[in-house]
Specification:
The protein is α+β, with helices and mostly antiparallel strands and 264 residues long. Helix content is 38%, strand content 16%.
């Protein structure tokens, strides 16, 4: 009897392999886009595993991948930032690193296109003196270097001097706070080459305290210098953040407090 010839398949087996490959590739890219901070070492291992699974012999260099795949812009961690915001972020990080390394007591905060730096007068000035302490000039020197490298993205630098209601002071509080702010501006201009038009120095004396002026601790906090750096993208008219929908007009002639930074 004639042996029955074995029937061959329908010729569609390749579809299973193709479907598996497409599924793995899709999984790979979903993995890339589902994370905002990629550990490059782990990513290389994932890529190697995918290559073996897909039967790809060639080595994949992650440097050849497009930036939008290596660093996907997802969520708040990768939000689109303007050039001035990026510059202020970098300045904040560099200044904070210096302060930590050199044990400098100062506070730094950034919101939108504004960078705030606050330090007590004693960091740069002796009591009842407008002259910058040479032994501590390194702090101001470093700030000046950082701001100079970001100057093209800076709209203005406000330097606000504040004093407290001292007892038996030989100085008028307005004059002392103004001269301290002026000396900081002069140093940044003459020693760091920052454009003079971008430097605005102001002295408020004892008129804008941030703590109780009747106590020694409060007066120490009130004696301060605030440096406020506005980025090029700063909008002078902004919507109030209290949910009221009202418009707030930024007035460069009024003092600017440091939001999110406690006076204590």
């Amino acid at each position: 009897m004639k042996r029955r010839q074995r029937q061959s398949g329908d010729g569609q087996e390749w579809l299973n392999t193709y479907a598996d490959m497409i599924t793995l590739v899709l999984t790979f890219f979903v993995l890339l886009y589902s994370i905002s901070n990629i550990n490059m070492v782990k990513l290389e291992k994932v890529a190697e595993a995918m290559q073996k699974q897909l039967g790809i012999e060639a080595n994949l260099d992650l440097e050849d991948l497009p930036d939008d795949i290596k660093y996907p812009a997802i969520g708040e961690a990768q939000e689109d930032l303007s050039a001035s915001e990026i510059a202020l972020n970098e300045a904040k990080s560099e200044i904070e690193s210096y302060m930590e390394t050199n044990n400098v007591e100062a506070m730094v905060n950034r919101e939108d296109n504004v960078l705030y730096i606050r330090f007590k007068n004693e960091v740069l000035f002796a009591p009842d003196s407008p002259d910058i302490l040479q032994e501590n000039i390194g702090f101001l020197d470093y700030i000046g270097d950082v701001l100079k490298t970001k100057e093209s993205e800076i709209l203005a630098i406000y330097i606000n001097g504040h004093t407290a209601d001292g007892v038996n002071s030989v100085w008028n509080d307005r004059i002392l706070s103004s001269q301290r702010a002026d000396n900081v501006a002069i140093y940044l201009e003459e020693n760091k080459g920052i454009e003079p038009k971008k430097l605005i120095s102001r002295g408020y004396g004892k008129n804008y305290p941030i703590a109780d002026n009747s106590t020694k601790e409060g007066r120490e906090q009130n004696r301060r210098v605030d440096i406020i750096i506005l980025g090029n993208g700063f909008e002078w008219t902004q919507i109030a953040g209290d949910g009221s929908g009202s418009v707030e007009q930024f007035d460069p002639l009024t003092p600017i407090d440091v939001p999110g930074v406690s006076a204590e």
